[in-house]
Amino acid sequence: MHLRLSEEQKMVQETIRKFVEKELMPLENEVLRNEREGKPSLPAATLKELQLKAKEAGFWGINTPAEYGGAELGQMMQAIVMMEVAKTFVPFGFGGSADNILYYGNEEQKKRYLIPTINGKKRSCFAMTEPGAGSDTRNIKMTAVKDGNEWILNGEKTFITGGNEADFVMVIAITDKELHEKTKGRDGVTCFIADRDMGWKSEYIHTMGEWGPAGLVFDNVRVPEENILGELHGGYRLGLEWIGFARWIVGARAVGSAERLLQMAIDYAKERETFGKPIAERQAIQWQIADSAVEIEAAKWLVLNAAFTLDNGEDNRHLGSMAKLYGSNMGNRVVDRVLQIHGGMGYTRELPIERWYREARLWRIYDGTDEIQRWIISRNLLKGNVKIGEFV
Ligand SMILES: Cc1cc2nc3c(=O)[nH]c(=O)nc-3n(C[C@H](O)[C@H](O)[C@H](O)COP(=O)(O)OP(=O)(O)OC[C@H]3O[C@@H](n4cnc5c(N)ncnc54)[C@H](O)[C@@H]3O)c2cc1C
Fold it and tell me: Where do the Acyl-CoA dehydrogenase/oxidase C-terminal domain residues begin and end (predicted)?
C-alpha cells in the first residue's frame, strides 16, 4: 500500500493544473458574463480551440482506451484530472471518457457514434429520467414497438443533460411490457441510440443553475434495429450499471471545487479586517476553515478509493455511492461556509461563489439523490453484500 501519487501521476496533475490556470481560469469572467446574459457559457469556437490545445498537450481522452486514440491513463488519473479541472467552473472536460455507455456498443456502433464522440465531432446525451420516473427508474413509461426492421419510440424524457445540444441520445424504453411487469421493471427495457434527425424534439428546462437540461419528446420516432445498444430487453441493467460505476466522479468534482473555494476564503480572511484585525484571527472563522479542510481531505480519500478500486478490477459501486454522497454534501457545506466568510460580497455577482453555490446544490440531486445513495449503502450492508471495512 502506498498513499502518495507516483511521479507520473504528479506530473499529470501538475500539467493539468497549469493548463487550468493558464487556459481556463482566464475565461471565468467571460463565462459569468455570458451566462448572465443567457448565452451559452462559451462560444463553440472557444471550446474547439481549448480542445485543440488539450490534444496538443496530449490530454484529450485521458481515460479513453489507446485503441480509440486516447491516453488510457485509468480511473485514478481521471480522478486526479477531474479534481484539477473542477478548480474552475469554466465548462471544459478532457473528452472521451471511458465511462461512456457507448463502450458497450458493437464495432459498427463504436465507429458511428463512439469515435466521433471521443473526437468531439458529435455530442451525446443519456436519457433515463421521465416526468413520472426519476429515482424510481423502474417506473418508466416510454415504449418502443417493433415494426419490421425498426422500432417506433413514443414517450417523454426529462432533465436530460446536454439534451438540447446532442446529436444523438441513448434512450431507455420498454420493449416487452409483460416482462417489464413480471420482473418489476428490471427487464423488458432496451437502450436505443437515436439520432436527432430521426425526429425527437428537445426543449430547454430553466433551472437555478446555468446547466439547463432538456425535456425530450418522442412522437413515433423510428429507430433502426441495429441501433439497439447492448442486449434487447437488457437496457435497464446496462444503464444502471454504467451510472453506478461512474458516480464517484460527482464527488471528484466537489473536491476540486471545494479546494479552490477554501483557498479563496483563506485569502479573503487574511485580508478583510473588522474591529481592527483580520477576520482570519477570529476563532469562528478559523473553525470554518479547519472543518472545511478536514472534510475535503476525507472526501478526497473516498474519491481516490473508488477510482483505485475500479482500476483494480473490483466493483466500486458501494464506494462510489459513498464518494458521491459525502463529496457532494461536503461541497455544499464548504461553499456555504466560504460564502459566509465573504459576508455580503459572497452573495454578490462580483464573485463566482454564488454561481458555485447554485451548482453545488445539483450534486446532491443528479446521478442518484442523497437519499438513494444512503439507501444503496445501507442495503449493501444490511444484506451483507459488503462488509464494514471491506476495502482497506
Ligand atoms: C440538472 C439535472 C440534470 C440531470 N441529468 C440527467 C440526465 O442526463 N439523464 C437522466 O436520465 N436524468 C438526469 N437527471 C435526472 C436526475 O437523475 C433525477 O432528477 C434524480 O434521479 C431524482 O429524480 P426526481 O427528480 O424524479 O425526484 P424523485 O425521484 O421524485 O424524488 C423526490 C424526492 O424523494 C426522495 N426519494 C425518492 N425515492 C425515495 C425513497 N425510496 N426513499 C427515500 N427518499 C426517496 C428523493 O431523494 C428526492 O428527495 C438530471 C436532473 C437534473 C436536475
Answer: 235-382
Interstrand relation of 168-174 and 214-224 (parallel, antiparallel or unpaired):
unpaired
- CB of 47 within 8 A of CB of 92? yes
Domain tally, the chain: 3
If asked whether residues 229 and 251 sit together in one domain, one would say no
The predicted pLDDT at position 29 comes to 95
Residue 109 CA to residue 222 CA, distance in Å, equals 17
Q: Report percent pLDDT > 90 for the chain.
A: 79
> For 283-339, what is each residue's pLDDT tens digit?
999 999 999 999 999 999 999 999 999 999 999 999 999 999 999 999 999 999 999
Residue 272 domain-assigned (yes or no):
yes
Please give the distance of CA 376 from its chain centroid, rounded to a whole number: 19
The region of weakest confidence among 57-66, 188-197, 359-368 is 57-66
Probe target for ligand 1 pocket from 158, 365, 370, with the most ligand atoms within 8 Å of CB: 365
Residue 153 maps to which CATH number? 2.40.110.10
- Are the C-beta atoms of residues 216 and 156 closer than 8 Å to each other? yes
Claim to verify: residue 275 and residue 321 sit in the same structural domain: yes
Ligand 1 pocket test: which of 123, 124, 130, 135 has the largest number of ligand atoms within 8 Å of its C-beta? Answer: 135
Q: pTM (2 decimals)?
A: 0.95
Q: Any residues with Cβ below 6 Å from ligand 1, and which?
A: 125-129, 134-136, 159-161, 207, 211, 213, 362, 365-366, 368-369, 371-372, 375
